[in-house]
Amino acid sequence: MSLGPMGMNSGMDINSMVSKIVNAERMPKQQRIDNEQAKIDTSISAYGRLRESLDTMKTLMNEFRREQAFAARTVETSDDKVVSATASTEAIAGRYAIDVLQLAQSHKVASDVLDKDAKYGPGKLQISAGRDSFSIDIQQNSKLVDIVRGINDSKENVGVRASIINDTNGPRLIVASNRSGAEHTIKMSAEAQVGDPLNKLEYKTLEDRVKDLEAARAAAQELISPLTPMEIKLAQKVADQISDAAKQVDLEVAEEAKRAALEADPNAEKAGNELSESAIAAAAESKKYVKPQDRIPGWTETASGTLLDSYWEPEDELDAKALGKKDDVPGWSNSASGTLTDSYVTPKEAKQELERKLAAEEAAIQRALATGEITPEQAKQMERAKLTPEERAYLEKVDQANLDLEAAQNAFDTYQGMTEVQAGQDSQVMLDGVAMLSSHNNVIENAIDGVDLTVKGKTDPGTRPAEIGIEYDRPGVREDIETFVAAYNQFYQLSKELSGVDPRTGQAGPLAGDSIVRSADQRLKSVFSSSIENAPEDVKSLTEFGITTTRQGTLEINYTMLDRQLNNNFNKLADFFGGNNGFAKKVEDAIQSMTGVTGSIRTREQSLTERNYRIQDDQVALDRRMDTLEKRTHAKFSAMQDATGKMQSQLAGMMSALG
């Protein structure tokens, strides 16, 4: 058996021995830090609970000061299955009769039963919901499900949803607006070849189809009206002829003036057989027609009948042909000559001539049908080749108008598109039997000043309209006052708990003997007992609301007095609680002096927090010292163990040598 000096051997537990030495050194210092840390944490928690209790009262007083509680309104309805309402602070108290005539709903259209194997396209669907629209391209041989996906997945979709309903007889396409109201009605038009089933997916109301038909008729009627665009062009052509004829008349007058000038002065002719301009002008002036009022001396509007009776104006010399055209010549004047009218072709004559040519065209077509030598179209083109370009252009417009009219009539007579299954409509409400209100949805905002109505069902015929009542929120204010009293009582009980001594255990609270707690309660009690100068005479203090202090220090409510004030003086309560000098502001200021940034409670919390930081620094320093002690002690024991090991080895060698 090998023994070391002082009983040591190589198997001793150095770590356990070092730990015991270090713990013995740490324990008293750590206990002091832990105790102080716990005390600080308990105090900070206690002050926090106290501050939160006071801030609860402060928040409630803030609402009182801003008069929010007194501005609130309550709404009651006699039939919540028909209508409900919400009221803002602007709503005026009163009762209103609500007669719901109709609910808002979205527009929905459906197709007839379709062939499940039908192929659609190529083409395009133009879809609109109200004033917004979008289109989708339909590829050739598309299926109905492809069209539905194209509608629903379109990035330009303006608020419609398509779906397929599997009827017992086949599929149907349903397209519905995502938004309710008459403004969001659906329209669908198809661009596809004749016979393509895509045409069955268009949707036009009867009114729209009638409008299309009337527009086509109006366009056709405009071309065959008493004065057609063709006739206007012909009239313009005749007007140009009149202008040319007028120039000819001026030349004839000038020639006559020249002859008169030579008769008056044979020497007026110059070299080159030309007359002086002054001579021609003088002669022309002598032949110019002058009105009686311009050539009779002393002429006035009030001239005597004798003067007029003795005056005779020569009649126009017109032939029978000119007189026949008189009513058809635009801008006719009695000074026009018969020769001029002979060359004028009136619109009536132009129309008669065009009708004659159309009759010839129809006769040629009939001959072609009878003989079969040429086709009717060839006969038609041969006759039209004889017309002027203006006449041909006009007749082409007539043909196109007839084609459009025929297409519109055919679309009207053979419509096979989608039909309406649910009308898009606004909600409608009759208020007090006199005012009509409506909305695109079932919420009528600001129907009455500050009141929004939500309609839920139609009023049954023969029954009384539903009624809504808007009142001041007296129950809400009563509840707020109860909350305020409860908040103070909770603060008071908490302050006693934190600053007092438990009579059963004798244990003192974390804030026992703290003057801040006593100061907080004294400040609040001072405000509660004071009167508000600017308040009405009958509501100047809490006692007039029935709120008094009990012997235990809490507040209690006399509900008889409180309800009397709420019922009789509700409008005056805001003057007591509200404003910058009211009760609520005084309570706020008292609490702010304690819980504000510079308040007494907040200052104490900050002081404790700083102490907590110092304790944490002490803990770090202690941990650092103990760590150094542990390392140093461990090194000593390790060196001792090494030395002991060497001594034992030498002793073993000596014992072996002595053998």
Give a summary of the structure in a few sentences:
The chain has about 650 residues and is an alpha+beta fold. It has helices at about 15-65, 70, 145-155, 205-225, 230-265, 275-285, 290-295, 305-310, 320-325, 340, 345-370, 375-385, 390-415, 475-500, 515-530, 560-570, 570-575, 585-595, 600-659, and strands at about 75, 85, 95-100, 105-110, 125-130, 130-140, 160-165, 170-180, 185-190, 420, 425-430, 435-440, 445-450, 450-455, 465-470, 545-550, 555. The strands form five sheets. Strands 1-15-3-11-12 form a five-stranded antiparallel β-sheet, with no helix packed on it.
Counting helices, strands and paired strands, the structural category is alpha+beta
End-to-end C-alpha gap: 15 Å
How many helices? The count is 19
Helix content: 40-55%
Summarize model confidence as the mean pLDDT. 79
Q: Largest sheet, described in full?
A: 5 strands, antiparallel
Percentage beta strand = 15-25%
Q: What does the radius of gyration come to?
A: 55 Å
List how many beta strands DSSP finds: 17
Poorly predicted parts: 1-9, 303-309, 313-317, 334-344
Q: State the strand order across the main sheet.
A: 1-15-3-11-12
Basic shape: elongated
What does the secondary structure layout of this molecule look like, with pairings?
Elements: H1 14-65, H2 68-71, E1 73-77, E2 83-87, E3 94-102, E4 106-110, E5 123-129, E6 132-138, H3 144-153, E7 160-167, E8 170-180, E9 186-192, H4 206-223, H5 229-264, H6 277-287, H7 292-295, H8 305-309, H9 320-325, H10 338-342, H11 347-371, H12 376-384, H13 389-413, E10 419-422, E11 427-431, E12 435-439, E13 443-448, E14 451-455, E15 466-472, H14 474-499, H15 515-529, E16 547-549, E17 555-557, H16 559-568, H17 570-577, H18 583-595, H19 600-658
Antiparallel strand pairs: 1-15, 2-14, 3-11, 3-15, 4-8, 4-10, 5-6, 5-9, 7-8, 11-12, 13-14, 16-17
Helix pairs in contact: 1-14, 1-18, 1-19, 4-13, 5-6, 5-11, 11-12, 15-18
